[in-house]
Write a structure and sequence with these properties.
The chain is mostly helical. The chain contains eight helices and no strands. It has one domain. The longest helix has 35 residues.
C-alpha cells in the first residue's frame, strides 16, 4: 500500500474527500441506494488505507529508540477491529435482528468503540509523522497538528501529503 503514500495531494483528495462529499450532497435530494453507499464506503476505505499506510511505513522508517515508544501491535489490532471486524459484526447483527429499532440501538452502542479505534489509529499516524519530522521523542502538543490534519482530511491532505511524499521517496 505504499502507492497511496506516493499519490499527489490532489489525487488523494479525489480518492478520499470527493466520494464522501458526493454522497452527502447526493443523499440530500435522493433516497440512499447501493451505489451511493458503495461510493461512501470507497471514500472511507481510502481514508483508512491512507492512515494505515502512514502508520505502517512511517513506523518502519523510525529509528529503534523512537519506535519502541509506540505500541505497534496494538495499532495493527485496532485497525483490524475498526475496519474489518466492526463491519462484519454490523452485517451479522442486521441479519439476526430484523427490527430496525434494535439495529439502531446496537449500532449506536457499537459506534463509540469504533470512534475510539479511529481516534487511536489517527493518533498513532500523527505521532509517527511528528517523530519523523522532529527526529526525537515528541509531546502530545507536537503531534496534535498532524492529528487534526488526519482527522479533517479534506484540509489535511493538502498539507500532509506533500510531506508524506517526501517521506515515501527516501
Amino acid at each position: 500500500m505504499k502507492w497511496i503514500l506516493q499519490l499527489k495531494h490532489w489525487q488523494l483528495f479525489l480518492f478520499i474527500v470527493v466520494p464522501m462529499a458526493f454522497t452527502v450532497i447526493r443523499t440530500q435530494w435522493m433516497q440512499t441506494n447501493a451505489l451511493i453507499e458503495f461510493v461512501k464506503l470507497f471514500g472511507v476505505t481510502a481514508w483508512g488505507l491512507w492512515v494505515y499506510s502512514i502508520g505502517i511505513y512511517g513506523y518502519k522508517k523510525l529509528p529503534e529508540d523512537m519506535a519502541s515508544s509506540l505500541n505497534f501491535p496494538l495499532f495493527k489490532m485496532i485497525f483490524v477491529a475498526a475496519f474489518v471486524a466492526y463491519p462484519l459484526l454490523i452485517f451479522t447483527i442486521i441479519r439476526l435482528f430484523p427490527s430496525a429499532y434494535i439495529i439502531w440501538l446496537i449500532g449506536i452502542i457499537m459506534y463509540l468503540p469504533l470512534l475510539c479505534c479511529t481516534f487511536y489509529i489517527s493518533c498513532f499516524a500523527g505521532k509517527v509523522l511528528a517523530l519523523l519530522k522532529h527526529n526525537r521523542q515528541v509531546s502530545t502538543r507536537e503531534f496534535l497538528e498532524n492529528l487534526v490534519y488526519i482527522i479533517f482530511a479534506f484540509i489535511g491532505i493538502w498539507i500532509l501529503q506533500p510531506r508524506i511524499n517526501e517521506m515515501a521517496k527516501n
